[in-house]
Amino acid sequence: xxxxxxxxxxxxxxxxxxxxxxxxxxxxxxxxxxxxxxxxxxxxxxxxxxxxxxxxxxxxxxxxxxxxxxxxxxxxxxxxxxxxxxxxxxxxxxxxxxxxxxxxxxxxxxxxxxxxxxxxxxxxxxxxxxxxxxxxxxxxxxxxxxxxxxxxxxxxxxxxxxxxxxxxxxxxxxxxxxxxxxxxxxxxxxxxxxxxxxxxxxxxxxxxxxxxxxxxxxxxxxxxxxxxxxxxxxxxxxxxxxxxxxxxxxxxxxxxxxxxxxxxxxxxxxxxxxxxxxxxxxxxxxxxxxxxxxxxxxxxxxxxxxxxxxxxxxxxxxxxxxxxxxxxxxxxxxxxxxxxxxxxxxxxxxxxxxxxxxxxxxxxxxxxxxxxxxxxxxxxxxxxxxxxxxxxxxxxxxxxxxxxxxxxxxxxxxxxxxxxxxxxxxxxxxxx
Amino acid sequence: xxxxxxxxxxxxxxxxxxxxxxxxxxxxxxxxxxxxxxxxxxxxxxxxxxxxxxxxxxxxxxxxxxxxxxxxxxxxxxxxxxxxxxxxxxxxxxxxxxxxxxxxxxxxxxxxxxxxxxxxxxxxxxxxxxxxxxxxxxxxxxxxxxxxxxxxxxxxxxxxxxxxxxxxxxxxxxxxxxxxxxxxxxxxxxxxxxxxxxxxxxxxxxxxxxxxxxxxxxxxxxxxxxxxxxxxxxxxxxxxxxxxxxxxxxxxxxxxxxxxxxxxxxxxxxxxxxxxxxxxxxxxxxxxxxxxxxxxxxxxxxxxxxxxxxxxxxxxxxxxxxxxxxxxxxxxxxxxxxxxxxxxxxxxxxxxxxxxxxxxxxxxxxxxxxxxxxxxxxxxxxxxxxxxxxxxxxxxxxxxxxxxxxxxxxxxxxxxxxxxxxxxxxxxxxxxxxxxxxxxxxxxxxxxxxxxxxxxxxxxxxxxxxxxxxxxxxxxxxxxxxxxxxxxxxxxxxxxxxxxxxxxxxxxxxxxxxxxxxxxxxxxxxxxxxxxxxxxxxxxxxxxxxxxxxxxxxxxxxxxxxxxxxxxxxxxxxxxxxxxxxxxxxxxxxxxxxxxxxxxxxxxxxxxxxxxxxxxxxxxxx
Lengths: 432, 622
Prior knowledge:
The structure holds two protein chains of two kinds. By secondary structure, chain A is an alpha/beta fold. Chain A contains 15 helices and 13 strands. In chain A, helix 6 packs antiparallel against helix 8. A six-stranded antiparallel β-sheet of chain B has the order 15-16-17-18-14-19, covered by helices on one side. The radius of gyration of chain B is 26 Å and the shape is globular.
């Protein structure tokens, strides 16, 4: 009925292990060319080989229907090498097991009655979850509304009830709405929302990786920094599709940050003269990356006008880094790849992408695109509320609060029901 | 083709009127011809949310707005300080005049016949298919192809005053038993609901000098977009306050009230609590406002809105006399509670037809609502849709973003109601887009498809719209600079002049007062060319449109995605039982509420967003 599918359940960054899951019917037969599946629910080591690759993986088999999706499910725990994992997924493709679409595992779980909807709700809107890994990440907050959202509700509801009261009964019953007091209550809420936005963005960077381009004039220290960041992972260098061989993409993890480095200087050999690339080749890279590290030797920080001109359109995402800080001192982000002193860069990157959140603090953050959009909407809504002129009529306040409450309910998946009205009628004595 | 409307209250009046106007021979069957259009409770029409619906019914060609204008003796726009979209017109209507006007209105409607009699049963050819007509208590039979039941509080109605319990539909009028029994026997889920009224006082026994007067608006603003302005003499209303003695009277006698003495099983509305409720549920509030409303120019009866009660008469007397100005007050008619059968609106389709009973529509209190305006709105839509069904046309279903009527009917048929349902603006998520003064424009297209408005009426709306568009255009094109007269007004208001500023930009600024706006608009040729407009009103309206644009856009954006769901129909063959992955609660809710669209499903309490997503997936998969 459903074709077999597979997906990595962990991000494809260098790591201790990568988990790949397969779901489908009669996987024992389908996977036979690759391995003999172990006994159900017993982890076992299996040696597999395909093409030029060999791998010893820990394998778990959950036969239908007692599995996550309700179909046969096999979990492979592979060594955490992104290249290896990609090749493995490709090989599964040759066995007729295609890559899963976003959220497809969860959808199957639902369709086979394997997952309680409340559980899924905690994971966010399954349709908009971009990857299975995202769903896993969201599981950190499985099943419950985070404290900050509960606190938000506690602020929103009484004000909403008052605003509704002021609109529907206000003149007769003398219910007034003190917009200044309301704003005093909502300012801390906005701050909290901002923190959550940062946490959520940080969580996204941690999951998807940060793409970086290294630029600078010759001898600015690009190669040294590149090697320092990429470390041993230099082994996994692949040509980036769609670009010339002059641009390389390296995925690595550095200081707890998953990085995708774009080296615009071509394959580097010791005696290769480092030459500047033409705009036409650099521009698309600059366009793509999340951050451009612009390297300048601290000893000789003279600007390269041509390079600066290329960077100009991307100024917002250019970070100036002074290299060789062991030789000369400099203001700003100063590093020395030679002595291994990259603290300033680490701090700057973390401040920029994690907003000074510790990576582990981002675990329960809103994970999906949908959730982030809703949070952004809530922020916009509160900002509108705080920006209201003091003489604004109650109807505008009520409308914005109702919208905010609606967003809250969508975010948490909680029933909105009549709780604002309930609050209104228990809080105020209304009506003729 | 023949349509019968059972009941001559506010739902029945609208249903019969619109059906006959649409050309279908219609009979309005009522237990008492003299009670057509009776206001059983307080003698007022409109209010916040309710006034919106009166305007909407009027914009579509209904009767209530015009009747209230003709019978109104005190008009007031409520909520003027709370914003333009939630302003609610309200009028004290002369109870006697309103009733007579309603009857005259129906008698003057072609194709409409009045008939006094009590319906005892509906008759179908087979089972509940092929409606044949209505059986009457007098032994006769009214053949018809469709019937709109607007029985109000009459089905198994029961009046309670203290320990006394009398079967009645209204005080002094018999209840209707047989029809209610038949509907119950057909398996329609029903419940007992309860509502109440206040005592009525002899005018001469009240010392008005000790009350706070509450004048109406001068000049009175009519409900109707089309009808003549109010002509009856306008009178004062007054406000009285309860006292410690009122509270004592209530507290000492709580056990004697029908409500608290355990004589009532029905659920009452939170929206208009009895005075007993007010003291019990809000012990901290020691004073309650009582609105002293004239009942009619023809009588000396005074209605005490806010003092709804089911206390025995002697306690009512004590309560009334406890208030300043009422020391000598004489009760003409005691207040009472009334308990009646209402049928679960979940079994209605969005056109208000009853699922499973062919040819039957329900409207008004029978569906669990409270209020004349709620009844009128449903009656109107049921009448329209019964006619459309007879003619094999698609029903007209108003959207939640189109009208309060749409909100109400969607709420009823989608979520149902556990208590008498009253309209509140809080129920409308598109509230800023549903200003009652814009109902004529907003509903013009619907009015055209319904087809009751006359050509002249349609033309008058079109004319206003064209004129307003022209004014908007001039506001967009007028430049505010030192060299234009607009600039002078801007400077006078203390605003700096920005380059490229249009008059519309300027009007958006809060610093522009209504006086400034008047001065600015007076400079526009289009504004001045139209002599017949009420400038203050149109100015408010213009400022609303200009200043609320961002908030309205925000409100609309919030529900954009969801609106698409309202277009996705859930096929009748859809079998929710077969879906694994849904909790039993969700399935039960789904089966009980029977949503017709995905949008409706998403609004049912207890059907979670994830469940909606799953249902969506399954519909698309088919």
